[in-house]
Amino acid sequence: MRGEGAPPDDTDGDVCARVEALAGTWRGRAAGAERERTLPRETVDELLDSGLLSLAAPTCHGGPGSGWPTLAEAARRAARACPSTGWTIGVVGGHAALAGRLSPEASGLLFAKGVRQVFSTASAPVDGRITRVPGGFEVAGRWRFCSAVDHANWVMLNGWCESPSAPERVLVPLRADQVTVEDGWHVSGMSATGSKNILVDGVFVADALVTSFDACFGERWPNGSGPGPGAGPRTGTGAGAGSTDYLGGVPYLHYMNSVVIGPLLGCAEGAFDHYAASLSPRDGGRPRALDDLLVQDGLTESAAELACARHLYSAVCATLHSAGVGRRALTSQEGAVISRDRAYLARLCVRAVQRLVQLAGTAAHHDASVVARHWRDLQMMAAHRDVSWALNFPAYAALAIESGGATTAGSGVPGRSGVPGRDDALPAVAESHR
Predict the structure, then answer these.
(1) CATH of the domain at 169
(2) What is the Cα–Cα distance from 98 to 171, expressed in whole angstroms?
(3) Does the residue 218 lie in any domain?
(4) Could you report the per-residue pLDDT of 163-174, keeping only the tens digit for each?
(5) 261-278 vs 68-81: helix axis angle to the nearest 10?
(6) 117: number of Cβ within 10 Å
(7) Is 208 within a domain?
(8) What is the dihedral of CA 144, 149, 153, 154, to 10 degrees?
(9) Which one, 151, 209, 248, 278, has the greatest CB density within 10 A?
(10) Maximum Cα interatomic distance, the chain, rounded to a whole number of Å
């Protein structure tokens, strides 16, 4: 399975090589990380030392200027070995771009000690409150789903501000020592992400450090670096620097909401690889599966589904990268297709691995089974709202119906605003497992 399909265009080969060099170590730690419900400190140090958690960091703060496909592909390859490590590279690593998109005062503070940091987010309040007070904001209460918060240097809170005027969606950065981590992460999948709760006890944050949600996720080219094809200084130092240095400027919502496809696809590919390997006897004799047409049929159909998922993955990577390099926002059609494709990719991956679990029988449900662990993790990833079919099909369906069927591949339907079903897309990230 690993040999099928080339990585997306414009993927940094050096980054992929770093992942592959560490993948065996992460695979060996995966079972223990699941039991401990957090990544080992050694794994986090490896991610930081190798630069895999700073792929999305802005070049103005010392980041490598990697393009989105490199971030997604690094997460995918790591997830074949350990899905939670892949999730941490893609989703938590993607928060470095968010840190750079905050107000200049906030981003300068967050990167004051460089890019070797872990940025967690808190996007799902339990009873969390952000209240405007003289000179700034007061934050209090609980938030859920703070991935890798055990290792975080900073936590970025995402929520609605209580204000005498109109409510406003804001992002508020807090140092790790300003929050209390509460262990409420007892789950059946993705345990090793350590996505625990945090409690904030009445912390004041100055006005200059708080950024509106729209300003953070909207178009915001720093230092005159865009928009426009080829615009901006080429200050990056990494292999992916130059025209790929766009994550700090493009409207970021689709990039952030799509990053889950890397670890999700890699998780499914890892399950397939382990299942296929289990069919070969250790003594080197003739595999019994060669005489079992049911196993052969299921294995082949799952392989075909994952091959289709890889095509969708490559298409999402290509669209996001093309828009980024072009220093432009996605068209409405591109956004609707990306939303459709990432949700259907998740559906294909779930079907493919579910079939393998059914073929393996009761053995696939043992705690020690690698396929079982990947299956548990995959189901948790597929429950994420960013790959929910119910939440993602309306935009494409509306576009297809209104265009009279002209949304097939290559139709080039011009972008338009106000696509039904997408007007509330920005607030949707609030409940995401980040």
Answers:
(1) 2.40.110.10
(2) 10
(3) yes
(4) 777 788 999 999
(5) 30
(6) 21
(7) yes
(8) -10
(9) 248
(10) 76
Beta strands 124-125 and 211-212 are: unpaired
Mapping DSSP to helix (H, G, I), strand (E, B) and coil, where does residue 91 land?
helix
Helix H, strand E, coil C: the string for 165-187 is: CCCEEEEEEEEHHHCEEECCCCC
Q: Which residues contact 184 (CB under 8 A, 6 or more apart)?
A: 144, 196, 197
Structural domain range at position 175 = 119-223
Using the predicted structure, report yes or no on whether residue 287 has a pLDDT greater than 80.
yes
Position 419 scores a pLDDT of 35
Q: What are phi and psi of 256, to 5 degrees?
A: -70, -40
DSSP string over 262-289: HHHHHHHHHHHHHHHHHTS-TT----GG
What's the whole-model pTM score?
0.89
CA 353 to chain centre: 20
Exposure string (b/e) for 187-213, b if CB count within 10 Å is 16 or more? eebbbbbbbbbbebeeeebeeebbbeb
- 129-133/154-162 β-pairing: parallel
Residue 161 domain flag: yes
Within a domain: 391: no
